[in-house]
Sequence to fold (223 residues):
Amino acid sequence: MGERKVISKYYPPDFDPSKVPKIKVKKAAYTKVTTMLPMSIRCNTCGEYLGRGTKFNAKKETVQGQDYLGIKIYRFFIRCKKCAAELTIRTDPKNSEYVCESGATRNYEPWKETNEEKESRLTKEQEEEQDAMKALENRTIESKKEMEMMDALEELKAMNARANEIDHEQLLEYNLQKQEEQERLQDEEDEKLVQSIFHNNNTSTIHSDSEDEEIHNNKTIKK
Fold:
């Protein structure tokens, strides 16, 4: 039993462990992790949308030669659930976000909007410094927008006030009355239908009785 299970091994008398070559185990370049998508992306290969929170078995590596204030940057390799294309995502500690490197496109990138707003603000300030009329025009436009926002807010407040004034008991009573009215109309229609059916039956019975009486009279006259 011992030999069958290969428990005992034979070592020759001249065995020297120092002469046995060491096996070099390559350190894995990637670490396998289970992760979830931190944002919604779209696969560039098949166009499949992958929502935020979708689980993946990913390979993680540390980006060499890149960091932000000593914070390491990590890269994740995942595969599309539909076409199995490789998608690459990288951390972005500068903006506290993630960046799609290859294979996919992010649906919404908030820092881009922030940068565009900053550039627009700086451009507007430069125009106002150079042209007083432009500054007056911009202030007029901003005042108009504020007035429109105030009007919209007042309208929403009025709508909410009207909604709060509705009595739920009155609404329930109105619905009950409407249902009773519908049932009453349905009963009236059913009654009219029944009366029309009975009227037709009575008319046909009267006609048949008169025809039978006429036939009987004709037979009596012939006799």
